[in-house]
Amino acid sequence: MPGSAALLRITYDDLSSLLSSLTDQEGWQPTGCAGWTPVDLGFHLLGDARRALVALATPAAGPVDTDAVSYWTAWRPPVPGDDEELWSTRIAASTQGGMAGVAARYAETAAAVGVAAGRLDADDRVRTQRRVLTVADLLSTLVVEAAVHHLDLVAQLDRPGPAQEALAEVRRVLEELAGGPLPDRWDDATAARRATGRDRLTAADRLELGPAVSRFPLFG
What we know:
Distance between the termini: 25 Å
Strand order of the largest sheet: 1-2
CATH superfamily: dinb family like domain
Number of helices: 8
Shape: globular
Helix content: 40-55%
CATH architecture: Up-down Bundle
CATH topology: Four Helix Bundle (Hemerythrin (Met), subunit A)
Largest sheet: 2 strands, antiparallel
Number of domains: 1
CATH class: Mainly Alpha
């Protein structure tokens, strides 16, 4: 398994290549994230990469209060009909020059994140979203976010998915959130989709998960 900075570079490079390969027409097709198009998701991911740059340049003196798993526990399912985040993202994305413009901005920002991450030690502390994490844990959250949305982007497109190493990190975090292993018959991509509510759980899934099913989706 690559180190945290190397894994982030792999994940971001794969995502950058994917976004750059999409045509403007493909940029408005459905994705695995209900209601969101590739342009919407690309702009959302651009915002995440920009946040990463700020975080990596924001050292924290205080104690760590969040790790790669607890970062996700604050997530709550959206209220039905609450599309504020989607619409605000779409409005902002519409000023970026379509899929090509979003992809170009993402590529340059993601590359800068990779450089910044490589300049810090894994146990350095940084601040983001009013939380203090180690660099390694911050990079894990970024890998998980990018890999899950990479799966969203290719849900209805004939394009490669995320690297297996990135999906393995997603599964590791999901299993920590679930409090135990996910079904062995789920490959890592299936685990990511089902544990985040993108795919419905089957009756067999619910039976195998037992009481842990009440925690699903683990995040969205």
